[in-house]
Specification:
This protein has 197 residues and is an alpha/beta fold. The chain is 38% helix and 22% strand. The longest helix is centred in the C-terminal third of the chain and has 25 residues, at 169-193.
Length: 197
């Protein structure tokens, strides 16, 4: 059984995709042992509680320094004893000690086809704004291993999504989530849980 801890900052749509995929058997051999958010108002925490999954907020606002916050974040995640940490829309750059503690056991979903539109400053809606500004015809999402850089770890899965002429950042974001993120993140977890990745 692969025990996973899911880290989220917002609504938790990727968390919902994971929970739904476990429920319908798309993901096998996997249990969500905890959900951690840096935002006490994240709807993802409600989603977790409704599904009887332990959910905790570790907010940087509650700590005197970034270092104290990082220590609390690491200790909270370690407390769930996960085999894999899944960043599902988690808008926190992880501290080096956390990346080291879970070396090659942290994965992230990024809303573009890495190496395009990734790195510093590319997160959330900003990615889709940049895609439309650049005029590319195809975008998508990437699941990758988290290493010491930003969006630089080994790519596990990617899925392309067509960009439409009439797209806005919001419509593109929604389609990338529906057609790519919510498909490849559960697929990656299933494959890791079953020794296929």
């Amino acid at each position: 059984m692969l025990n996973i801890c899911v880290c989220v900052s917002g609504g938790g749509t990727n968390l919902k995709a994971i929970m739904d995929s476990i429920a319908d058997g798309t993901i096998t051999n996997t249990k969500i042992v905890g959900v951690v958010s840096n935002n006490k108002n994240a709807f993802a925490l409600e989603r977790a509680k409704e599904n009887h999954i332990p959910a905790v907020c570790v907010s940087p606002k509650d700590y005197a320094s970034r270092e104290e916050f990082y220590n609390a974040l690491l200790n909270t995640v370690k407390g769930f004893q996960p085999d894999l940490v899944v960043l599902a829309g988690f808008l926190v750059n992880l501290p080096a000690q956390m990346i080291e503690e879970f070396k090659n056991r942290i994965i992230n979903i990024h809303p573009s086809l890495i190496p395009s539109f990734c790195g510093v400053g590319y997160y959330g809606l900003k990615v889709h704004e940049a895609v439309l500004e650049r005029g590319v015809k195809v975008t998508g999402a990437t699941v990758h291993v988290v290493d010491g850089g930003i969006d630089t770890g080994k790519i596990l899965l990617q899925k392309a999504v067509d960009v439409r002429e009439d797209d806005t950042p919001k419509t593109l974001q929604q389609r990338v989530m529906e057609q790519a993120e919510w498909k490849i993140l559960p697929e990656a977890i299933h494959k890791i849980a079953n020794g296929q990745l």
